[in-house]
Every structure is written in structure tokens, then in C-alpha cells.
Amino acid sequence: MAAGTCALPVLVVAQPAVAGDPVIRSINLRPAEPVVRPDNAVRLVIDVVARGVSGPEGVTVRVEPGAAPRPSAFPEPGTEPSPAQPPGTDPSLWSPGAAPPVPEVPVPSAGTPSGGARPSAGTTPVPGQETSASPTPVAEQETSGSPTPVAGRPGSPPARVGQDWETWRFLPEKRLNRWYPAGRWTITAIARSADGTVAVEHLEFWLKRETVLRGVEAVKEEGAVVVRGVLNRVDPQGYLDYAPFAGQPVDILHRREETDPWQRVSSTKTDSMGYFTRKVRDHRRGDWRVRFPGTPRFAPGLSRIIQIGKSDR
Known about the structure:
This protein is mainly beta. It has two domains: 1-207, no CATH class; 211-308, Immunoglobulin-like (Sandwich). Helix content is 0%, strand content 37%. The strands form four sheets. A five-stranded antiparallel β-sheet has the order 1-2-4-8-6, with no helix packed on it. Strands 3-10-9-5-7 form a five-stranded mixed β-sheet, with no helix packed on it. Strands 14, 15, 17, 18 and 19 form a five-stranded antiparallel β-sheet that branches. The protein is elongated, with a radius of gyration of 24 Å.
């Protein structure tokens, strides 16, 4: 999966609440599983659908590494949550992005520009500051500061805060790059009503670094096919763009015809330099490729297709 590609959204749906209380119906994240390369940074788009909230900061979000608290750790109804903030949090990371409450509207795709600069000296790259939305509506976030009419009907009045489901969009100014911790992250959305009642929902996602399969080839040898290549990953130390990924499983896939489904016919592990090789018998012709299944911190990888007896693709 290319870093920044908008995958199917991750969605968390809240349970029904007492009428009149603030309710968070869903948290939607794009891309659903952000993947970073050495030279890019991923821009998150966070949409929170809520109602029963009040004021320009009726919904706020926090984004930070780690798992969501267990249900027993949730705040009691009507109390203010106080999620722990890791030492060294960069206060500028999750500054306001966009948008005040507006009626729920279709969300366009968001691109991910490049830029993988390392944080400046003295900054510990662990986010966690609470973020509110700025006065820019979801549907017109780049051009207008006025509310979007209900259901988009010309001349209709703006949606009244707290009455209908409203979509709040957050675009964190700082983007996630290779210097932020890979693995599980949590979005915490907090909705507040006029009387101070709060509702809290969490959404977990996985920030991953890219992996690449290089030099993959499949050649006939002694009545079998030998498949070999190298698995690399974005260097977590930052000394190189990519470094060997040792001790990882890779699957050998085969199909006889283009219309056939891929079959896993063998597997092996990479050595200390990320190199792998496997001799496969009884499958001498057809298409071959290699798959790395991925880990919680590193994205899956898939090699090019190689044809035995035909030119490579």
C-alpha cells in the first residue's frame, strides 16, 4: 500500500446515549492505515460525526501513540476526561486544522504530499495535545468561513448547533513521518454540551513504515523453480532510507494462468541481510511473485509478477 493512499475509511460507531446528551456517532480516519516512506509524511484527515454539542470547540480530538484506554478507564458520564499526555509532547503537533459543525456531507479523497523532514532539535516527536476545530466548514474548508446550508439546499438557513448530526473535520498541521513511533495509535474524540456534559469515543489505528521486495526472480533449476530476492524496510534508525529486514517470513505465490487465483505454494524466512531463497518443485510453469504479510509496525509488501517461460512483467 503506497503511503498516503486513501484506503477504505476506518470507522468506529458509538452506542446510543440518553436523549439530550452529547453523542459521538462515528470517528472516520483517512488513510485508514497510514504508511510512511523515507521521503514522505502522511496527512491525516479525521472526521467526527456528533450531535448535542455546543460552541466552536464543541468537539475536540487528541491523537497520540498507544492503545485506547480500557472501558473501565473511561470517564464517568458528565465528567471531563483527562487522558495521560506522554512526557516530551510536542505542543505544536496537533494544532487546529478545520472545521466547525456542519451537516454531514460526502467526503472527498485527500492526497498526501511528500515531505519527511526530521523534527527540529529539542523536539520529542510524541503528539498528544488536545485539538479543536477552526471556523472552516467541512464542505468548503479551503474557500469559505460561512456555515454550509442544511442538506445543501440554496437559501436554507445554517444548521443549528446541537440539533442534527454534524461532521467536524480535523486536519492536523504536523504530518506523520518516519520519525514518529510506528505501531498502534489512538484518536480520542471529546464532545461537549452547553451544560458541560461530555461524551468520549476512541479509534485505534496503525502507523506503519514501508517495506519493499527487491531483486525478486524465479528461475528454473534442476527440475524445480528457485525463487529469491531481498526484503528491505524503511530504516527505523534513520541512517539509511531502507535497511535489510532480517528474520521475516515471506510467502511464495504461484498461479498457472492469469485467470487462476494465486496460491501460496511455499514460504521461507529472510536472513540477516534480508535475503531469501526457496526451491519449489512441481510448479515449473506459470506466474510467480513474493508476498511479505507485514507486521504491526511495517506494511505488507508484494513483488512484481514473474513468468516462467515468458518475458517478465
